[in-house]
Specification:
single chain, alpha+beta, Rossmann fold, six-stranded antiparallel β-sheet, six-stranded mixed β-sheet, 17 strands
C-alpha cells in the first residue's frame, strides 16, 4: 500500500507531499490542473519513461519518492530522480539501484490502469494476455517464450554452421593441396639461412681452397713462415735465458704460441681442403632454396610464417571435419526444443480452452453490475493453419509462436439480438471502460499488496452508469488500496477519501498542488462537478445526497 508520495520539481508539481490510506481514494480537479501529471509521476516512480518536459523550468532535477507499507508490516522506499540533461537515477531504500531493479520491485507495488491499458482492448493480439492471466498461465507462457527464443538461437547457429560447412567444402581441396605442398617440402624453421650460407661456401670453393693453402703456407709451411720465425725467436730467448733467468719462463709461452699456430694451420687446411664434391648436389641445393623461397613468398615471407600457416590449415581442416557432427547435434537440439515447445503449447491450449467460457461468463456477470444487463461478451479462439508451421498433428500443420497455438479476440454486443462483433471495432469509449473494469474485477491481482490506480476509468460513462461504476470501484477497493482519477461526482462521492489537484499562480509562475477535501470543501467540489463550475444551493443539496449514498 502506498502510504506517502513526495514530488519535487516534476513539471508543475513543484513540491507535493501526499499521504494515502487504504480503501478508495478519488482524485479530482479541473481539466488542465495536473491530474495527468500526478499519474505521470506515479508511472515514472514505477519505472516508466518520464513525459516530455518533466523537470520543472529552472530546476536541476525532478524527484519522485514513494513509501509503501507491505503486508508483513515492513516498508520499502522507492525514489527516482530525473536530471534536466535526461539522466536518471533510481534508489530502493536509499540504496542505488538500476532502473530494471526498481521497475521489478514497483511492479508488485503499483498496478496502473490508464488509457494505455484501455488501448490493449483495441489490439486483438493483446486479448490473449487477459485470458492467460485469468487461467494462471503467466509462468507457462514465459516458458513458451523461452522455447521460442532458444529455438531461434539454435536456428541462427544452424544457419551459421551450414554456411561454414559450405565454405569449408568449397575450400577443403585447396586447403589440403596447400598443406600437402608444405608437408612435402618439410621445411625447418631456419633451413633457408643455413642453405644460403652453404651455397655461398660451395660457390666460392676454389677461392676458399687457395686462400686456405696460402694461410697454412704463411703460418707453418713456408721456410719463412710465422712458425719458423717463432722457432728462431725461441732459440734466441733460450740463449738470453742463460744470462737472465727471468726470460726463461717466457720460453714456455713462445712454445705455446707455436703450438697454437700449428693447430690453427691444421684446422684451416682441414676446413679448406674439400676433397671432391658433386656439382649436381650444388644444383640440388639451389633447387631446394628456390622451393623454400617460393613457399616463403606465398605464405608470409619467412619459413616461420610458412610453418604457422601449415598449422592454421591443419586447424581449419580439423574444425571443418567436425562441422558435420556439430550440425547433427544442433539439428537434434532443435528437434528436442520443438518437442518440448509443442508439448507446452498443447498444455497451455487445453488450459485456455477450459478457462475461455468461465472468463466470458465472469465478464458478462460483472458487466450486468455495471448497467449492461443485455450485453454479450464472447472469447473466440482460433488456430491458424500454416503449411510451414512448426506445430504438426494429425490435422495438419499450424502456426506456433512463443505465445502458443491460439489467436484470441474478444467479441461484444451491448444490445439484445445483435450479433457480437470484435471489441476493437464496435465498442464505444464507455463500453471499453466498463469492459476494462469488468476484466479488472475478474482477473487475479498481480499482487495483493499493489496499489491500484485507475486513470479515466469513467471515460464515456455518466448518470446511472457512472454511479454503478462507482459502486463497483468501491466494492473492488474493499480490503485494499485503490486510487481513481475521475471527473464524475457520482464516482468521487463514493470514495473513502477525496483529493483535489489544484493549479495556481505564484510569483509569476504556475504550479500545481494536491489538497485533501472533507466536510464542506468536499460538498463544494462535488457541487461544482455537478453543475459544471457554479456552486448553487441545489447543487450542494445534490452533492450531500450523493455523499449520503442516495
Amino acid at each position: 500500500m502506498l502510504t506517502r508520495l513526495g514530488i519535487t520539481d516534476f513539471a508543475l508539481l513543484r513540491r507535493a507531499e501526499v499521504s494515502f490510506t487504504a480503501g478508495l481514494t478519488a482524485i479530482t480537479g479541473e481539466t488542465g490542473a495536473g491530474k495527468s501529471l500526478l499519474v505521470g509521476a506515479i508511472n515514472f516512480l514505477g519505472g516508466q519513461k518520464a513525459p516530455f518536459g518533466a523537470v520543472s523550468s529552472g530546476a536541476r532535477k525532478a524527484v519522485v519518492e514513494g513509501e509503501f507499507q507491505l503486508a508483513d508490516g515492513s516498508s520499502v522506499l522507492l525514489r527516482r530522480e530525473l536530471f534536466a540533461d535526461g539522466r536518471s537515477r533510481a534508489f530502493i531504500d536509499d540504496e542505488s539501484a538500476s532502473g530494471k531493479e526498481l521497475a521489478r520491485v514497483a511492479a508488485k507495488l503499483l498496478d496502473v490502469t490508464s488509457q494505455r491499458a484501455f488501448s490493449r482492448l483495441l489490439e486483438p493480439s493483446r486479448h490473449l494476455d487477459f485470458l492467460d492471466a485469468f487461467a494462471g498461465l503467466t509462468e507457462s507462457c514465459r516458458k513458451m517464450a523461452r522455447y521460442e527464443e532458444d529455438f531461434q538461437q539454435v536456428e541462427v547457429r544452424i544457419k551459421s554452421v551450414r554456411r561454414r560447412l559450405k565454405e569449408y567444402n568449397e575450400r577443403r581441396e585447396f586447403l589440403q593441396y596447400q598443406l600437402r605442398e608444405i608437408e612435402q617440402a618439410a621445411p625447418a624453421p631456419d633451413e633457408d639461412t643455413q642453405l644460403d650460407r652453404e651455397l655461398e661456401r660451395l660457390e666460392h670453393i676454389e677461392e676458399i681452397r687457395q686462400d686456405g693453402e696460402r694461410i697454412a703456407w704463411l703460418l707453418t709451411d713456408d721456410a719463412e713462415s710465422v712458425e719458423s720465425r717463432l722457432s728462431e725467436v725461441q732459440k734466441l730467448a733460450a740463449h738470453v735465458a742463460t744470462f737472465d733467468s727471468a726470460v726463461k719462463e717466457l720460453i714456455d709461452d713462445i712454445e705455446s704460441a707455436r703450438s697454437s699456430l700449428k693447430d690453427i694451420s691444421r684446422r684451416i687446411q682441414s676446413r679448406c681442403r674439400i676433397e671432391r664434391y658433386d656439382p649436381s648436389s650444388l644444383e640440388q641445393m639451389r633447387e631446394r632454396r628456390r622451393i623454400l623461397s617460393g613457399l616463403a613468398r606465398r605464405f608470409g615471407g619467412s619459413l616461420y610464417s610458412v610453418l604457422e600457416r601449415a598449422e592454421g590449415f591443419k586447424k581449419e581442416l580439423a574444425e571443418g571435419s567436425s562441422l558435420e557432427s556439430d550440425l547433427e547435434g544442433l539439428i537434434k537440439e532443435r528437434r528436442d526444443i520443438l518437442t518440448q515447445w509443442s508439448a507446452a503449447a498443447v498444455a497451455v491450449s487445453q488450459s485456455r480452452k477450459a478457462a475461455q467460457p468461465e472468463l466470458a461468463a465472469s465478464v458478462k456477470k460483472s458487466l450486468r453490475g455495471l448497467g449492461a444487463s443485455d450485453a454479450e461478451f464472447e472469447i473466440r479462439i482460433q488456430h491458424r493453419a500454416d503449411p510451414g508451421g512448426l506445430f504438426e498433428d494429425e490435422a495438419g500443420r499450424w502456426k506456433m509462436t512463443g505465445r502458443g497455438l491460439e489467436e484470441v479476440e474478444f467479441y461484444f454486443s451491448a444490445n439484445p439480438g445483435i450479433e457480437p462483433r470484435p471489441v476493437a471495432v464496435i465498442a464505444s469509449g464507455g463500453e471499453l471502460s466498463r469492459i476494462m473494469l469488468a476484466l479488472k474485477e475478474v482477473l487475479p491481482p498481480e499482487s495483493d499488496e499493489a496499489t491500484i490506480l485507475f486513470d479515466e476509468i469513467d471515460a464515456g460513462v455518466s448518470g446511472r452508469v457512472a454511479r454503478l461504476v462507482g459502486y463497483k470501484l468501491r466494492h473492488l477497493s474493499a480490503g485494499r488500496q485503490m486510487l481513481v482519477i475521475t471527473h464524475l461526482p457520482q464516482i468521487a462521492s463514493l470514495a473513502d477519501r477525496h483529493l483535489k489537484v489544484v493549479k495556481y499562480e505564484t510569483e509569476g509562475t504556475t504550479a500545481t498542488e494536491v489538497v485533501e477535501l472533507d466536510g464542506e470543501d468536499r460538498v463544494i467540489e462535488l457541487a461544482g462537478m455537478l453543475s459544471g463550475g457554479s456552486v448553487s444551493t441545489p447543487a450542494r443539496d445534490q452533492a450531500r445526497r450523493l455523499l449520503a449514498g442516495d
